[in-house]
Amino acid sequence: MPSIESRACGLDWQAFVYMNVFLACSSFSCALPTIEPYLEELGALPLWAYAVAIYSVGQFLASPIWGYLCSVYRSEYTLYASLLIGIVGGLLYATARTGVEILIARLLIGLYTGSQEACHRTIVVRCTTDNERTVAQAGVSTATVLGFLFGPALAGIFFFKPLGPVYFLGVPLRLDTFTGPGWLIVVFCFISSFFVTIGLTQEQTQGLPLCAATTNDAKKAGQGYKALPGSDEVRYGALDREDAKASGVVRDLEKEICSSRMPIRVSGIIICGLVLFVNALGFSAYETITTPLVKNDFGWDLFYADLLFVAAGIVCILVFFIIRVTSASVEDRYLLLCGVLFSTAGYGLMLEFFDNRMNLTRFLIGFAAVNAAMELNRSVTMSLASKILPPSSRNHGLLQGLLISCVACARIIGPMYAVWVWNATDRDKFSQGHWVFVGLFLCFLVTTIAYGASFHYLRSHRDLYLQWLVETGQAVSQKIKT
């Protein structure tokens, strides 16, 4: 049975969010197979690396801005502005005549994707309770991964005889393998705008509420707090509730609690950002070198390398269902601990210190462990960070945007790191991929140590609020009685 908050936001909102995130993330990968020959046709092949990386720059810039705006203003306004940017970027990509126009188009498409994901994750925070949020965030992460994986397949529908050009206002319009992804992004934006129009309710479109009296049960229930067990005993000590009201204890006690706000565990949020950054860094790095690695070390062709990434997508879907089953009974911080340990072990298995060569069995087990941990880490981190903030905080959208910016920043650094290490090492004793995995293993080892040292600070605001309310309420009620 959905909670009161989910029913208030409508039963179909999750499908709306997942579909829009899937379409936005498909806009990144749908152009990857053809962007290199497209630039070569335009005589701008040296801009190839920049055209791929500038997408993440746009995502990095847009995420915190749109996340904050979505917290303050109606979601439909921010989403429509994001979709307008996507339409302009898609049209510019489809009609580009120079490499610089391709760069600008990719930047706009990055702005579109980053703003879409930030807005939808903010909607998830707004419309879920603590118990529901991990599964919902896992659904968004799964939609993101599937969008990246299936984008090239969607772009494959344009492998036919070119159509055009047709001149419109002096601009040649044509539909072929190179321009098809741009037109596809325009279609994605119009489909998403339709979902925004029919899928958002009034509760979802309004901004997050201002921090108000945190002791008001009705307001807390509407913002993810259920009725606190034993709340009367917590607030009024041994006094009877009616006697407490009559003697003015309720008024004095609530005034005291409101005036002494519980501090936010900023260190917990920083650790969440670190885990998310290292997780995305590792994913983008091994994603970059997997194809040449399996080709050089195992003799695989491109077809089998693609099948490996399809298998990775299936693993992510399985992890989503595991999170759905376990999140209700296991705290997020324990789930995230499992994800960090799995990542460390996965990269450790890919090292060649055991037999001085890349063993296929160990590589496949490590690859599966890393992909499973990648989905688990991304989903749980986004959920856990939002639970550390108070439900009534207006910084949820900004936080979600900053976390997405961490991912975008890692996606810029990861491929550069992987390519630099790959080119700087030789194959005399170890393979080139080995040294890439050494760096990733050390990053996760340090992250695991930092995570363990900060484990106490990763409790949800609700749990800390209950503990703080007990201590503050009993102290104040004892003071009033005496």
From TrEMBL:
Membrane-topology annotation of the record: Multi-pass membrane protein
Species assigned in the record: Lotharella oceanica
Alphabetic keyword roster: Membrane, Transmembrane, Transmembrane helix, Transport
Gene3D superfamilies: MFS general substrate transporter like domains
PROSITE patterns (alphabetical): MFS (PS50850), PROKAR_LIPOPROTEIN (PS51257)
Localization, UniProt: Endomembrane system
SUPFAM superfamilies: MFS general substrate transporter (SSF103473)
Domain spans labelled Major facilitator superfamily (MFS) profile: 1-462
GO MF annotation terms: transmembrane transporter activity
Full protein name: Major facilitator superfamily (MFS) profile domain-containing protein
PANTHER family recorded: INNER MEMBRANE TRANSPORT PROTEIN YAJR, MAJOR FACILITATOR SUPERFAMILY DOMAIN-CONTAINING PROTEIN 8
TM region positions: 15-35, 47-66, 78-96, 138-160, 180-200, 264-282, 302-322, 334-354, 398-422, 434-458
Keyword Membrane: yes
GO CC annotations, alphabetized: endomembrane system; lysosomal membrane
Statement: the UniProt record of this protein carries the keyword Signal: no
InterPro entries cross-referenced by the UniProt entry: MFS (IPR011701), MFS_dom (IPR020846), MFS_Domain-Containing_Protein (IPR051068), MFS_trans_sf (IPR036259)
Top-level taxon: Eukaryota
